[in-house]
Amino acid sequence: MSLPLTEEPETVHESDQLNHFLEDVLTGLRSNPKHLSSKYFYDKTGDGLFQKIMAMPEYYLTRCELDIFRNKTEDLAHLINAYGSPFDLIELGAGDAMKSTFLLRHLTEKGADFTYMPIDISGNILSVLEENLNKELPELNMIPLEGEYFEMLKKASAMSSRRKVILFLGGNIGNMSSQEAEGFCRELHHLSDPEDILLVGFDLKKNPHTVLNAYNDPSGITAAFNLNLLSRINRELEGNFNPDYFQHYATYDPVSGSCRSFLVSLVKQEVVIAGEKIMFEENEIIDMEVSQKFSMDEIHHLAEHTGFKVAGEIKDSKNWFVDSIWKKDHLKTDVYGN
Questions:
Q1: How far apart are CA 172 and CA 92, in angstroms?
Q2: Residue 4: which pLDDT band, with cuts at 50, 70 and 90?
Q3: How far apart are CA 119 and CA 94, in angstroms?
Q4: What is the rounded CA–CA span in Å between residue 172 and residue 257?
């Protein structure tokens, strides 16, 4: 199904993105249980709400990784071999680059030869990022790339043959199921060369109250962040969701390390999206997001199971979060195809 547009989009790319959004939404809401992809949280309103989430006292993740990037910058630079051959520093899901800016400043001041390539699905946040970094680090070589991770990684590789240092921060690897995370890492393995380096941020298992509070804040910002996706569907896909008829619910299982967010339908209702009717029963849920927490053994297993070896690890001062540095394991390249 294609969305009937009331006016022509500025580019074919925008039309493709909108129809892909519609296809994903309808596929998810036709499923049982219903689900929506968390990657669509980030429109202009969602970007602003997530920045508020990162500033919440309960949301420890940003502060933990910020601790690493602010206070252990030279360690990071050393582990990514920043002073060796020239490289492209590619950040998947760059957002506002609050954490990576510390590394960018350090590398620039030390004279490292690199180009920063932030990738994000949100053109809005990339515009904000580019404007801010042009002011803070005018000497920085930067090429923003708007789109899906792997599509933009391929584009970056076509633009430059230099070795790649790929950042995937914020514990975003935890927003995937175990199967999705393995597939994601195998695709990164396939797209990377032996001299490339992957730095992945992992949120570690900890007191379950600490984890749950980060995703169920009493001020309701996280709830608004989830509910905004319904409003975005209304704005962009001709939907008629009433967000007041849905309630945010978060849960955490300390055994599996799975923290999940849902929206619960408070009434039996019919929602129309681009002309298609979707029925909701009272108390029916929409699965919105998973935020997986890891043990160190699980991180090592994921690396080894997808063709990488762990080349270094840096934890924050509380040992709540780790940035794990991976390189391709040459002994497993035949198994994974390159």
A1: 9
A2: very low
A3: 6
A4: 14
